[in-house]
Amino acid sequence: MQNHQLELLAPARDADIGIEAVNHGADAVYIGGPSFGARSSADNSVDDIARLVKHAHRFNARIFATLNTILRDDELEPARKLVWQLYDAGVDALIIQDMGLLELDLPPIQLHASTQTDIRTPEKARFLQDVGLSQLVLARELTLEQIAAIRAQTSATLEFFIHGALCVAYSGQCYISHAHTGRSANRGDCSQACRLPYQVADTQGRIVAHDKHVLSLKDNNQSDNLEALIDAGIRSFKIEGRYKDMGYVKNITAHYRTLLDDILARRPELARASSGECTFTFTPDPELNFNRGSTDYFVQGRQLDIGAFDSPKNPGQPIGFVLNVGPDWVEIETDGVANFLLNNGDGLCYYDLQKELVGMAINTAVAVGKMKGGKQRWRVQPNDPVAELKDLLVGIEVNRNRDMSWQRTLDKKSSERRIGIWLNLAETADGLALTLTDEEGNTAHAETLVAKEIAKDADRAEAGLRENLGKLGTTIYQPLDIALNLTQPWFVPASAINALRRDAVEALEVARRTAFQRLPRAAALPATYPEDSLSYLGNVFNSRARDFYAKHGVKLIAAAYESHEEEGEVSLMITKHCVRYSLSLCPKQTIGVTGVHGTVRAEPLSLINGSEKLTLRFDCKACEMHVVGKLKRNVINQRAQEVKTAPIRFYRTRI
Fold first, then answer.
1. What is the 3-state secondary structure (H, E, C) of 428-493?
2. Using one digit for the tens of pLDDT, what is the confidence trace for 301-327?
3. Can you list the domains of the chain with their CATH numbers?
4. Which residue of 137, 331, 402, 418 pairs with 159 in a disulfide if CB–CB is 3.0 to 4.6 A?
């Protein structure tokens, strides 16, 4: 991929969603294979991926397969075989976390660094580039300045998450799920402890926050930062969401396709990474999909309001207020504009007196009258009045978090993606020839034997030729220009022109397939890892990964946390998010503030959820938070069988 090309990279839970991602403007799609894909319930057969590859390659779009879990020794050979199967299916690149894969006999498939590799520094990015990874997804926590610093020391394609759910921890650096449940995030089975409510207590046992989801973040949305990210060096723009449904992928892909196309139209030095233009039957709007509110996280520096502390659910958009509550109905006042027309099946929600988000599914919604200022009164009957109306009071604000009309629009065909072509019709000695040239410069030629009759009406004959040549509606092409290089506009039967056009289009498909080139595998260069030791945070889970790091200068290598070799309390999560800062308790926030007596210290806090207790420790120099805990004994027992087949141990011995 050339650096001036911009790639919109969309997720796919399955091949059908991946096909629609391409149809809605994705330049590349990432999808999990049948195993090792870091999303335990988003697996796909190789045959399905091959079907997606075939569709994507028609538009010069790429398919990246995720093989980004850490692997046990007994999984290395099955993983190697799977890589070959994916390569044979036409997959363009492999997204990996486990460096042990680089020690295996792999096909010449391009390799990309997963978000799980936790790339935050120029040194680590340069190392991964030098050992043969062509595309690097950077940590979501980076600022524009940090991204630019990495760009200055690398030539690999830099990828960045621009939308979707945010992991509160540095990716690859979270072990709470494994410690508490035996479900490893690094092996695609996170239990999402970050979305739970916690009591936050200080060192004296005082409650600082009550039942707040203090580790739950709003969703990432970089819509306003795309051009700044381009200027900082990002070339691949990644949408999170391999668990997301079809409507999400259609809408969010179309949203960013529109934004990027606007930038491309203004900046001719940039180009899209695939073929074709998209038109949509809807106006993309990221607010209409599930979201927890939006944040641009740390791209523009640390922000105070990045947390979704009240609820990890979708709060939706405000639509109005409660006017009256009956035994099995509620009257709601809305603004009366089209976006606030209520539909049977819509989802509403509101915050109760305990600040808990309560959902309400509409059984029936009836408009019962206009009010002043164009407002509309609705009478709504919920599916479960007893549960959904019990805490609803007059005056409470109501949000909508599911719009059935919107969903029905996206359930239908909602996009067209067309590749522009130039058509040139010319005469031959005994017939006509049609040459097609697409937007990449591929050409195709077809000829037909046909008698050239003088047209009785030249203008009508010319219009007929142009009309029949331009009938590309059942193909993936659209005419940019139709040139008639004829001595005169001959009369030619429509059937002959249609057959000629079909033959030329078929030849163009062959020409495009022939011209398509697989992404090259980058050559590995001599490289030394930036550090000479690796703790459990290095996620080394097999002997080949150990060999890889030893070969690149690491002298002290600890086993992955999943090997159960860590004892006592350790950092189960490392995060740029700071609970003290979000609660306005950071020492830096009190500097120079009048009325603050003494020094505010970043003393530990406790997180309590039922019997679970975690400690928050603050590294103010690095401006990071560590969530500290220990592995449960019962988890070790539960996972004993996995440990028996787990990696060869390489305790902290020097090499």
1. ECCEEEEEEEECCCCEEEEEEECCCECCCCHHHHHHHHHHHHCCCCCCCEEEEEEEEECCCCCECC
2. 999 889 999 999 999 999 999 999 999
3. 5-166+218-274+282-288 (3.20.20.70), 168-214+528-655 (no CATH), 313-411 (2.40.10.170), 416-515 (no CATH)
4. 137
